[in-house]
Recover the amino acids of this structure.
């Protein structure tokens, strides 16, 4: 099997244009469902999104066709670049995924600790301590200062908040 | 001189000790935000917006607009010292600013940058003071068709005058309008584009989109480039300031020209970034032969883009205040703030909320003055922020972004949406899709649609309503010319090639 080299400019252009076209198609479909024409009391709910969707669809298809002409050799992101992006994106996604179960503070502490230890090269002790400090500072600032309730998990329950 | 009286009242509002304290906090936060790559003016303001609900609107807007001024100042610090533009509008500042720092003239470059930022902003604020009330007064006569025409003009000028591909600009604008449509239609009460999801009934909040597109997207692009901060040391002492200030009046013509370019680009929604590039380009083109080339550390190369960027960033508030059509993404976020605080943006603001408007304008004078003093003397501390390792900064920014996205509606779903917008923003930025029109369309979508519907209602579906009188007709005509400008210029180019061929 050939080693994954990265994503080419052409693939990326095509994917994004196709995504826009798909969004446009969805919007047109839904607008037709709720009525895109002229009701008794003026334009119906789907009137504006229908035409916006139609313009977007035409523009996206045009872009899709012109993206076919992009030389496939040009690179959008190399393998190394994608690895670096993933090193930030994956932990961030894990944090967001765990948030409903563990709360925002604990997951934030974990994220800070992970970043410092794995990307920043700090020792785990320093990293974990910094994570905990971050969570406490965030708690004081938001929960106590600004009276904003952020998602909490079992640890905050244990502490009685 | 009505305006001066109102402005004095405004100063009374802005000089309230509590508001002055918020001003200082805003400027400091803004400079920090401007220095950090990944936190920009637009998403910095977006993150803090939900926290301002408990404040009176005028205090809230003073805090948030000062963050904006601070971010405009802060972008220059990293451009000059680290060759890393903290904000897109400071990219052009790196061309001559960083070489100056390498030659040991960092203090001179920074002083010139901050002072010209201040000059640009001051110029724009004076313009706002005197022109905005006139525009608002004029706009009081606007009906729905005129408002739709103004919005049309704003988006058409993005498409026609933007630096990127007009097709891509059109696509993101339309996508922004569609995102604005999602949720409950306030006119008919039917659900649009929700596809059965209860989370989508709320619609896509522009704050979540801004935090994702600008915040997360920026971090992903920064980490991809493998950021390492390595910068010149800088401390500005008084003698360097005095020396540079003595030198600056010589460049008055350059400053004036750059400020004018900035004001023009800021009022039309081109924004600060193209303004800074254009001003730099014009300065370079007008340089006399035989002088030292640009790009090797000429002070003019710092003055031109900084004056224009700050003038543009500031004057972007003029159409926002007078017409309710923001001239930049950050102004769009501020406009969204107005709506969230229960104020109706548009020309009536000057009549109904005079305290608010003039308090804001007065705080712009004060905020920029305070900002200038602050950045001149606190540069070393702000520059030290970049000595914090990127891993720490990135993690903190991610945490702040998710808190910001969550607090908008207290919804976890929004945090997920933010992350998706982040990936989208990363891909869009790499493929040169402009982000600003998407944000503007998302903020203005509902009001554009409303203006369109009301016009259609009054005309019974006849599109001729947009050409029914000279006012709306001429705005629409200018909009159409701008919209099709890329096509027109291509056709003209093709014709002139043909002509040249025939002659040759």
């Amino acid at each position: 099997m050939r080693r994954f080299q990265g994503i080419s400019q052409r693939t990326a252009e095509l994917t994004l244009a196709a995504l826009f076209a798909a969004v446009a198609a969805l919007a047109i479909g839904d607008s037709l469902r709720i009525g895109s024409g002229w009701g008794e009391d003026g334009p119906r709910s789907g009137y504006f999104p229908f035409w916006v969707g139609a313009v977007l669809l035409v523009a996206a298809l045009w872009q899709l066709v012109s993206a076919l002409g992009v030389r496939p050799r040009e690179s959008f992101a190399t393998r190394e670049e994608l690895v670096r992006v993933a090193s930030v994106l994956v932990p961030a996604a894990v944090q967001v995924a765990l948030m409903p179960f563990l709360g925002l503070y604990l997951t934030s502490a974990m994220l800070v600790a992970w970043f410092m230890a794995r990307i920043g090269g700090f020792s785990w002790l320093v990293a974990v301590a910094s994570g905990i400090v971050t969570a406490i500072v965030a708690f004081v600032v938001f929960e106590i200062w600004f009276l904003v309730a952020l998602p909490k998990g079992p640890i905050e329950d244990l502490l009685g908040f | 001189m009505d305006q001066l009286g109102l402005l004095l009242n405004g100063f009374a509002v802005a000089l309230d000790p509590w508001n002055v304290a918020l001003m200082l906090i805003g400027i400091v936060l803004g400079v920090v935000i401007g220095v950090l790559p990944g936190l920009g003016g637009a998403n910095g303001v977006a993150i803090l917006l939900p926290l301002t609900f408990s404040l009176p609107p005028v205090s809230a807007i003073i805090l948030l607009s000062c963050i904006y001024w601070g971010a405009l100042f802060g972008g220059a610090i990293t451009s000059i010292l680290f060759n890393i533009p903290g904000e897109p509008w400071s990219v052009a500042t790196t061309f001559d600013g960083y070489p100056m720092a390498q030659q040991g003239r960092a203090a001179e470059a920074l002083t010139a940058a901050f002072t010209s930022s201040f000059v640009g902003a001051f110029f724009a604020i004076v313009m706002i003071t005197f022109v905005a009330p006139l525009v608002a007064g004029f706009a009081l006569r606007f009906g729905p068709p005129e408002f739709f025409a103004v919005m049309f003009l704003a988006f058409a000028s993005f498409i026609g005058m933007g630096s990127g591909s007009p097709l891509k600009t059109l696509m993101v604008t339309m996508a922004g309008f569609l995102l604005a449509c999602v949720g409950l239609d306030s006119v008919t009460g039917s659900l649009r584009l929700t596809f059965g999801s209860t989370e989508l009934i709320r619609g896509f909040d522009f704050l979540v989109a801004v935090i994702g597109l600008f915040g997360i997207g920026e971090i992903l692009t920064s980490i991809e480039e493998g950021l390492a901060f390595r910068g010149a040391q800088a401390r500005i002492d008084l003698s360097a300031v005095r020396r540079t200030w003595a030198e600056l009046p010589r460049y008055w013509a350059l400053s004036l020209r750059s400020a004018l370019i900035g004001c023009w680009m800021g009022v039309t929604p081109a924004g600060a970034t193209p303004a800074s590039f254009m001003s730099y380009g014009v300065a370079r083109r007008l340089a006399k032969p035989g002088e030292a080339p640009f790009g090797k550390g000429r002070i003019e190369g710092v003055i031109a883009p900084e004056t224009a960027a700050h003038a543009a960033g500031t004057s972007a508030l003029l159409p926002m205040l007078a017409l309710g059509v923001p001239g930049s993404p950050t102004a769009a976020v501020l406009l969204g703030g107005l709506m969230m605080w229960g104020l109706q943006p548009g020309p009536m603001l000057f009549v109904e909320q005079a305290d608010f408007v003039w308090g804001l304008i007065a705080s712009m004078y004060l905020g920029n003055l305070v900002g200038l003093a602050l950045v001149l003397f606190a540069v070393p501390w702000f520059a030290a922020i970049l000595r914090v390792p990127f891993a720490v900064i990135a993690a903190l920014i991610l945490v702040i972004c998710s808190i910001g996205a969550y607090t908008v509606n207290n919804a976890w779903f929004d945090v997920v949406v933010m992350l998706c917008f982040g990936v989208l923003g990363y891909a869009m930025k790499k493929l040169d899709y402009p982000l600003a029109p998407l944000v503007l369309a998302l903020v203005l979508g509902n009001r554009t649609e409303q203006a369109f519907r009301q016009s259609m209602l009054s005309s019974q579906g006849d599109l001729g309503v947009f050409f029914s009188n000279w006012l709306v007709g001429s705005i629409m005509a200018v909009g159409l010319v701008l919209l099709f400008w890329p096509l027109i210029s291509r056709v003209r180019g093709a014709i002139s090639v043909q002509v040249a061929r025939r002659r040759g």
In short: The first helix of chain A runs from residue 9 to 34. Residues 79-159 of chain A form one domain. Residues 113 and 127 of chain A are 4 Å apart (CA to CA).
